[in-house]
Amino acid sequence: MKIPEKGLARDQVLEMLREYKEGDVNYQDSKTWSLVYYLGEEHTRFLTEAYNTFISENALNPMAFKSLKRFEHEVVRMSADLLGGDDNTVGVMTSGGTESCLLPVMTYRDRAAGRGLFRSKKPEMIAPQSIHVAWEKAARYFGVKMVHAPLRRDMRVDVDAVRKRINRNTILIVGSAPSYPHGVIDPIVELGTVAREHNLPFHVDSCLGGFLLPFVERLGYEIPTFDFRVPGVTSISADIHKYGYSAKGASVLLYRNMDYLKHQFFVHESWPGGVFISPALLGTRPGGAIAAAWASLKAIGMDGYLGLARRVMETTAALQEGIRSIPGLEIVSNPEMSVFAYRSTEKKADIFAIGDQMEERGWQVDRLQRPEALHAMVTPLHERIIEEFIADLKESVKRVIADPSLAKKGNAALYGMIAKVPLRGMVKKEVLKMMEQIYGPEMKMPY
Ligand SMILES: Cc1ncc(COP(=O)(O)O)c(C=O)c1O
Fold first, then answer.
1. How far does residue 154's CA lie from ligand 1's centre (Å)?
2. CA spacing 20 to 30 A to 332: which of 99, 107, 150, 349?
3. Structural domains of the chain in order of their starting residue, each with its CATH number
4. In angstroms, rounded to a whole number, what is the distance separating the alpha carbons of residues 114 and 110?
5. Does the predicted model carry a pTM greater than 0.90?
């Protein structure tokens, strides 16, 4: 494959793009339960226009594109207001949840290093076993040891276990609001108290919940306080490209004040290319993503987000009620918002085989392990498919119970094996091999 000697006609290229897209999962019909937060064509067209208005602009240099710096500033201020911040709250926009989780690890590591902490040993951070993998990535990238704290039976982190894991090398405590796997909020108030007792920074990963929970709370649902209103919280990540319904590539990372954020800034003063400053991970920062995030917050507004949150929560309740009504299935714990896991209560109803059956019926479902479960991330448009989904799920459970051999076939056998293999190193080795094939010169896809 080479770049064409002679460029193709633009129309032809656009046609090819559309054709390639046909093999992708179809989120427009609401049969997908992750990856896309889709509000329909009208909102997508609006985001496209906002994005395209700044498609070439670069937020690398805030002096050159003052418009982008203004959008970023306003997004940070609006987010700070939403998440219990005050006039001292500061922050940056990032390319997404992962960047908003990577950066605090580096920032708090460098802050601790500046204070002469952990001089002889590797710095450590304490996070629940359910913490998003972005934090494991951060640990690896920035040479910080990840110390996991176990979960209680309700899948929220055991605060006493966190307390017991604190030592002289601890630089950071992390909690989720909510966690990705089970959609439950860790005991943020209690963790905040522990952090304050030990004078440690405390980050709340609210990448999923940051633009939904404040509205769920305003609707009158009982939501434990999880944001800057909790005194020990020093930073929060919240993704605008999730429940903020923006274009991909937009998240916000907020710190309680500049005493923390300043450790994130990168300045290189003697580069031949000039004095270089950077507030976050990327160099070139896409103007389109920043402008579209700003546009999304402005156009949807508090009333819009409230209405969307109501639809999301009502749809979630209906889906959960439907799942609970199916003998052999249950919801894992009691999630506060619209992300949840469901699993089987009967040995015969193998949950991964049920997942395969759902896929045969056109649903795109994600599998969880430890405990084995299926996953749902509910968006407003899922309201259209509640009955169809529950009917298909009922059928799938019936079919698997009638034919237990389905658990030993197809993806169920593969996922079942992966989830149960005690030697995790072996799983890692196999998956790494698979990655070499996907990213190898021949792009061999596993399925
Ligand atoms: C709690 C949490 N943190 C971080 C992330 C990472 O976000 P992204 O996929 O935007 O990098 C996710 C993604 O789902 C998440 O749920």
1. 21
2. 99
3. 50-298 (3.40.640.10), 302-434 (3.90.1150.10)
4. 6
5. yes
